[in-house]
Amino acid sequence: MTTETMTLGYARMGKHREIKKALEAFWHGGLETDTLLATVQEIEAHGWKTQLDAGIDRIAVGDQTLYDQGLDWAIRLGLIPDRFQGLNSLDRYFAMARGKDGIPALEMTKWFDTNYHYLVPEIEVAIAPQADFRDFLETVQQSQAVLADRATPVVLSPVTLLSLSRRDSSVDLIKDLAQLLPLYRELLTQLKALGITEVQIHDPILVTSSASSLQAAVTQTYQQLAAVGLPIHLATYFDDLGDVYGWVTQLPVAGISLDFTRGNNLELVKNHGFPEDKTLGAGLVDGRNIWKIRPDHGLATLKELQSIAPDLRVQPSASLQFVPHDAALETQLPAPLRGVLSFAEQKLGEVTFLARTLNGKDTTPQQAQMQQQWRAFEQFNPPNPVVQNALKKLTVQDFQRSLSHSLRLDQQVQLPPLPTTTIGSFPQTPEVRQLRVRYKKGELSPADYQAAIDAHIADCIKVQEEIGLDVLVHGEFERTDMVEYFGQQLDGFAFTKNGWVQSYGSRCVRPPIIYGDVSRPQPMTVREFGVAQSLTQKPVKGMLTAPITILNWSFPRADISRRDQAFQIALALRQEIADLGAAGAQIIQVDEPALREGLPLKVQRWSEYLSWAVDAFRLATAIAQPQIQIHTHMCYCEFGDIIKDIERLDADVISIENSRSNNRTLQEVTAAGYAHQIGNGIYDIHSPVVPTTEQLVQQLQVGMQNLPLKQLWVNPDCGLKTRRWEEVVPALKNMVAATKALREDISV
User: Fold this and answer.
1) Given a cut of 90, is residue 665 above it in pLDDT?
2) I want to staple 513 with a disulfide (CB 3.0 to 4.6 A). Which of 72, 283, 407, 494 is the partner?
3) How far is CA 741 from CA 40, 421, 526, 643, 737, in A?
4) Residue 136, C-beta contacts closer than 8 angstroms, at least 6 positions apart
């Protein structure tokens, strides 16, 4: 039987971030709607053609998005909250994504355990959805003109959509499902009428711990959808099926995709077999990391699978939206490293290479080349004995601050009630970005560049003092990204020029590549902190990114454990914290927004991960003297079920996103009895809307109702780098005004 190839989605935004640029131009009034949509269509069509040229047999279509796929499917299914009903078309679409004129946007949170953020659909109690699939069907038809019968539409499962939505807990999921299934059946019917021969239904919720409780809903879904008569390929990814493997593999579908790069799906297939009447989609090429496969390992696994499930398709483990477009563009990287990198285009080649080999084609020269590339890389990247020895010598004391939180407080900086601050970054204006570009091109000397950065720091300090903030920041004008900046100054990291991936909407990140042992050659932030602190009598925060966030927002090594990589990063940050303290920092913020996103999707694996993840933060920060106040920041994640682990971080202050979750995050934290101080994120920085003083007073009052006054700080919900000064300044002025009004009430 011939082994085919398939994809589950492709890289987004364009090789040169064309969609990002088009979106932002559109939002600022510099681009017409037709041009924006044409740009998205062009990038999507280029992805189809790239996959076709690579020889992929089944090509996923309809996975591209203008902002987010969760938002797309909510709108297609008519799941529009009441507050957006008065808006139409793109105006409503972007209002749901970004907010508009006092109308809060949909909540945003992590897509499973990735660094992609999705917009959370809101399911109101009495839903009566009215579907409109026209945009999706038009895309499918356009793809057919290019791909013919290779076009395979991607549809988000109704069970996954409902499971990830904000729903009334009193309403049974089956009840909401009953409203959606007729709409899904109609969609599949229309796809069948277009001549589509197979549809992918993506159901990643099946790899989570909640899957066992969803059996009835999942079974009902696929029984009804299968009745349409259009073959369904059920796609799962990010982990294994675990305990639900038995009944999931018996669902009435034509094929099932499994992720063989994460979890234990290989053991499940070997132990329990695989149905003879179904195609097995073998996700052997890692869709979430950038390392080239080792051919001996990949082929051995495929041959094992083929002996159990002869009807096999080779594919990436997940959509390729999580990796950049093309490693061939990274000509500045050392050849030994570049030789083992695989981005979206290269992964297509790996998929077809594996299939050709399995189909009896002679790929010996290609195998030899790949093995030689790995040998060359290993010679280029030997272990660092200093780092290795430091890890071996760690003791329990290295993870513990010298005094407990309650005993440290009196020694730390004294501030007024409801102290005000920001999360760290200030607007990255075109002028700031151009400054960094000119420096990279050699048009500015290091001295001139530093002088220009210092001028921006001085302006930022002046603005903050005029606004009346209590604790200041230097603004982070020297930083392109909160992870990239640190990786650039650490040994063991490499950086791409075009390695962009979508984080949310128009927001793109360029994750560093961890390729070797991590160490800190020299201080990374001390100079800029010193400049800022010299300009004010108020405390300035030292600003760092924590080890788990650096790890989770990078492409990690595949040859050592994530724990060891986290501890290496922590040791480097530990040196930086010691130096900041010696330079006079009274407050050091060590941001850890990605702690939760690293949680395994199986609850039973949480304890192991949280143990070493929290220890990594403690290893970095325990060096701080008791008088130094350690802050951390977390955003866009749920806290309630890991609050004890967050408390174990032993940070003196944690700042949280709270506005977009309608205070749910605050309530989760306080309900668990969190005893440390909390920075209440009182307005949404992802929206261009400037909150009024009255709105902020209301938000602060909610905080005061949930927490003792001594525990509360006041801040926006995240960094301000993506906003404009004309939005930032009035918002912060209103935040300070709201705080002062409440302080007056307290003093009366």
Assistant:
1) no
2) 494
3) 47, 16, 36, 31, 6
4) 62, 72, 76, 153, 187
Spatial CA neighbour of 155 closest among 216, 221, 89: 221
In 3-state terms, the chain is what percent helix, strand and coil (to 5)?
Answer: 50, 15, 40
Active site residue 686: yes
The pTM of the full predicted model, rounded to 2 decimals, is: 0.91
Q: Which helix (H) or strand (E) holds 81?
A: none
Beta bridge partner(s), residue 256? 234, 280
Q: What is the DSSP letter of 322?
A: G
CA angle 377, 378, 379 (to 5 degrees): 90
In the prediction, which pLDDT does 67 show? Answer: 97
Report the interhelical angle of 446-467 vs 526-533 (nearest 10°).
50
Question: How far is the C-alpha of 97 from the C-alpha of 239, rounded, in Å?
Answer: 28
Residue recorded with tokens 């966030």: 549
pLDDT digits (tens, 9 = 90+) for 198-251: 999 999 999 999 999 999 999 999 999 999 999 999 999 999 999 999 999 999
- For 178, the 3-state DSSP assignment is helix
Give the residue, 307 or 689, on which the prediction is more confident.
Answer: 307
In the chain, count H helices and then E strands.
27, 20
Amino acid in the structure at residue 600:
P
Q: Is the separation of the CB atoms in 726 and 688 below 8 Å?
A: no
Q: H helices of 148-208, where?
A: 158-163, 173-193
Paired with 152 in beta bridges are 60
Q: Is 442 helix (H, G, I), strand (E, B) or coil?
A: coil
What residue ranges define each of the domains in the chain, with the CATH number in brackets? 4-380 (3.20.20.210), 418-747 (3.20.20.210)
Angstrom distance (rounded) from CA 96 to CA 109: 14
Q: Which residues on neighbouring strands pair with residue 494, listed in sequence order?
A: 513
Question: Per the structure block, which two tokens stand in for 291?
Answer: 């390392």
Q: What is the pLDDT of residue 592?
A: 94
* 53-105 residue pLDDT tens: 999 999 999 999 999 999 999 999 999 999 999 998 999 999 999 999 889 99
Helix axes 344-358, 295-308, angle to 10 degrees: 50
- Please, where are the H alpha helices in 28-172? 33-54, 69-76, 89-98, 134-147, 158-163
- Catalytic residue selected from 233, 474, 631, 686: 686
| pLDDT(489) > 70 | yes
